[in-house]
Amino acid sequence: MAERLVGKQAPDFTMDTVLGNGQEFGKVSLSDYKGKWLVLFFYPLDFTFVCPTEITAISEAASQFKASNAEILGVSIDSIHSHRAWINTPVDQNGLGQLNFPLAADITKQVSRDYGVLIEEEGIALRGLFIINPEGELQYQVVHHNNVGRSVEETLRVLEALQSGGLCPIGWKKGDKHLVAK
Q1: Above 80 in pLDDT, residue 182?
Q2: 51 an active-site residue?
Q3: Where residue 41 sits, what CATH number does that domain have?
Q4: Tens of pLDDT along 67-100?
Q5: Residue range 30-39: average pLDDT?
Q6: What range defines the domain where residue 64 resides?
Q7: C-beta neighbour count of 1 within 10 angstroms
Q8: Which pLDDT belongs to residue 7?
Q9: Cβ of 55: how many Cβ atoms within 10 Å?
Q10: 5-19 burial by CB neighbour count: b if 16+ within 10 A, else e?
Q11: What is the Cα 178 distance to its own chain's centre?
């Protein structure tokens, strides 16, 4: 039986990363994001077809996430060396080019497993997206099949709705009125 994650403390993690410049390696833990919102997303594999469309779109919107006090972290089961090669491959050759956030390597698949997105029999992650608040509580998750990319606009809308602290009806956007409980 699947365990609920929303409303609970996000599963802790420590992973190796490649910075968006494709040159530097690092390490990242959930605690590094304390005091900030985190948009954590999983994708199946480097050098695939749908993944670069959403990863580059998220990168292009990075300044909008940053303006909302949110950091971004992409994760797959690939190695940091594969991530580095993909970032350093030109976009017109199915690469990513420079990114505005790091990619983390979940080589052991434990983080994918902890977040409930690992397809055990294939050894890859589903497309999972999680929004974690500054206190480390998981506020939002969406997980779906790997053949459909995610919407950057919807992710930003949900992030801003969560940050607003009010009751947000369908389609709510920043600046809209909240619902009033009666």
Answers
A1: no
A2: yes
A3: 3.40.30.10
A4: 999 999 999 999 999 999 999 999 888 899 999 9
A5: 97
A6: 8-148
A7: 2
A8: 93
A9: 24
A10: beeeebbebebbbbb
A11: 27
Q: How far is CA 144 from the centre of its chain?
A: 13
The residue annotated as part of the active site, out of 15, 30, 40, 51, is 51
Residue 4's pLDDT band (cuts 50, 70, 90): confident
Give the total number of structural domains in the chain.
1
Instruction: Return the closest-CA partner of residue 43 out of 121, 136, 105.
Output: 105
Question: CA 142 to CA 149: how far, in whole Å?
Answer: 12
Identify whether 31 is part of a domain.
yes
Q: Give strand ranges (E) for the chain.
A: 14-18, 25-29, 37-42, 70-76, 103-105, 118-119, 124-125, 127-132, 138-144
How confident is the model at residue 5, as a pLDDT? 93
Displacement of CA 63 from its chain's centroid (Å): 15
43 has a pLDDT exceeding 90:
yes
Q: What's the CA gap between 169 and 159, in Å, rounded? A: 14
* Residue 110: inside a domain: yes
Residue 13 lies in a domain: yes
The pTM assigned to this predicted structure is 0.94
Domain assignment present for residue 44? The answer is yes
